[in-house]
Model the fold of this input.
Amino acid sequence: MAHIHLTNVHVSFPLYELTGRSLKKRLMASSTGGRIGAEPTAKRTTIVQALEDVTFNFEHGDRVALIGHNGAGKTTLLRVLAGIYEPALGQVNIAGQVAPLFDIGLGMEMEATGYDNILLRGLYLGLTKREIKRQAHDIAEFTELGDFLNLPLRTYSLGMRMRLGFAVSTAIQPDILLLDEGLSAGDAAFMAKANARLKEFWNKAAIIVLASHSERLIRDMCEKAVLIEHGRVVASDTVDKVLAHYRHIRPVQSHEDTPVG
Amino acid sequence: MRHYSRYDTRIIFPAGHLPLFAIVLTSLKNQTGFWLIAQLKTGLTIHNLRKALADLIDGFLRIELWSTMGMQEIHDRYRRSMLGPFWLTISLGVMVLALGLLYAGILRQEVGDYLPYVAAGFTVWGLISGLILDGTRSFIASESLIRQLPGPLSLHVYRVLWTNLIIFAHNIWVYIITALIFSINPGWNVFYIIPGLLAVLINGLWIGVLFGLIGARFRDVPQIIASVVQLAFFLTPIIWRPEMLTGREFIMTGNPFYHLVEIVRSPLLGQAPTPEQWLSVLSITIVGWFITLVFYTVYRWRIAYWV
Done:
């Protein structure tokens, strides 16, 4: 059974100014006695507390929305769940195979052909070559790109690239699915077909965590919601209650509704 | 299940209990660098070491991914040129020919003897310097992947090893052709190239991990390393021969590059590397891996934040 348990997770980022990124300047500053014009060395690193004391449990079958304004820590939290950021403090206990789908076009090679990109993207998503070869035909069929798949990606339109990314990304079957905004599938004609696949894809995942600004998408997809403000969990409840709370503390921003697929 | 060790930015490191580091520590005490040294003390745990080792093993096991990425990178660089990566072979060939003829004259060397020596030297140097230069950028070059994909970070270093090995496989033809022209027969000793290359790659792995990590944190490190590598080229016997150096031998024997070059070059020229050379390479490997494991244990988890 898949689950996500976070206990007192803290994440902080050091923000380096230019001098802090230079080894030469760092060494010079420590070898010379006086620090001429180097006064800012003392405050060179600003530490941003991105997540503070985050605790929650998601169980098998949960559909969770992460709500919060820009910079509240949603993406950081998703990256912690994906295992990309290891928190400085606290415990992350995740059971199940995690698939982060943050950027559908990640790692696409413009000079490589469509088929090469299916292979590469599949490998990034954790599939083996054999698994990809088995699915390549279905993926190719679904994209409706035909002979274009033998051409380099740079000859594709943006919509075609998105189709390809969408088709490969939804070919995996993870236990836990992490999404930053919805998965976009390109042009409207493709949408109807994509939506059916997306439904199936979502239903197969044991846990979905979705960070979004779109109220419509959140209501469509999720039952639970977590509200994050300045890196802290402010509310964790059903979607209705959390959205009401969010509207209460941030009345101006409730009109946002970005189109999603 | 993942657990995380504690660290605290406010820990005051008791400077001076190790006399060797006392001076360094006091000079760093008032800086934020001190914070990193505090991490070194708290982060060096068996648990973190185990995770660092697991990262290195898991990274290797993603062989399908990094070999495909490496191939893709090579293809990408040369996709629209007719000769592909053999452009590298040609440019190396031209350089070997021009420099070989010139320096054979300057240093009064027999061309038939000297040209194969230069060809072998350049080929091996290309591999070693490529491993170092690409190694310092191993994590920076993959920053968007690191920030979006979970997985062992070491796979990005294996990719660097793989691309450089592919380039080496193209460059080696310059030597092979030179050896054929001057009818050099290295005999059975040529097979020492297998352990030699393996030793270079094992060293390339720690170089890519350690320098890649430092390069991700301090962005001027790739440039600093590039200048050092350039200097090392002149200090290492590649266009000159070890026997030409009389006096100041320490420049050569104390030069790690010399030993790494020699262990691959001498089999190409038909000599078995001497036990001293194996021993030198072994000690470079041990020292390098020791330092790398210390750093990788402590700072591995920070790389995703740095890139």
In short: The domain at 3-96+211-249 of chain A is CATH 3.40.50.300 (Rossmann fold). The first strand of chain A starts at residue 3 and ends at 16. Residues 37-42, 253-261 of chain A have pLDDT under 50 and may be disordered.
